[in-house]
Amino acid sequence: MLHSVLMVIHVICAALIIGLVLIQRGKGADAGAGFGSGASGTVFGARGAGTALSRATAILAAVFMITSLSLAYTGTRTNQAQSSILDQLSSQQQGGSSKPSDTVPVAPPAAPTAPPAN
User: pTM of the full predicted structure?
Assistant: First the structure.
C-alpha cells in the first residue's frame, strides 16, 4: 500500500517537474526580447515568474528525491517469502511437496549417438 502511494506521488512529481522546466525561460530568452518578442514577460512580469517557478522546481526536485529514496527503501524491504521459479522447482524435487500434481516430470537425458561410419 505504501509503495503504491509513493509511486503515485513520484510519477506526479516527475510530470510536474517536466512541466515547470518547460515553462521556464531559458538564458537565451533575454536576447530574443531585444528583437521584439517582449510578450514572454507580460504574463508574470519581468522577473516575477523566474523566482516562483525556480523555487517550485527546487521544492518538487526535493520531493522527487525523497520519494526516490523511500521507494528504494521500501523496495528492499519486501516480503522474503517470495522466491524464484527455480527455487520453487528445487524445493518440489527435494520432497517439499506432497501432492502429485505439484511434481514436475523430468525426462531422462538422451543417449549420445555415434557418428556415422564412412
Answer: 0.51
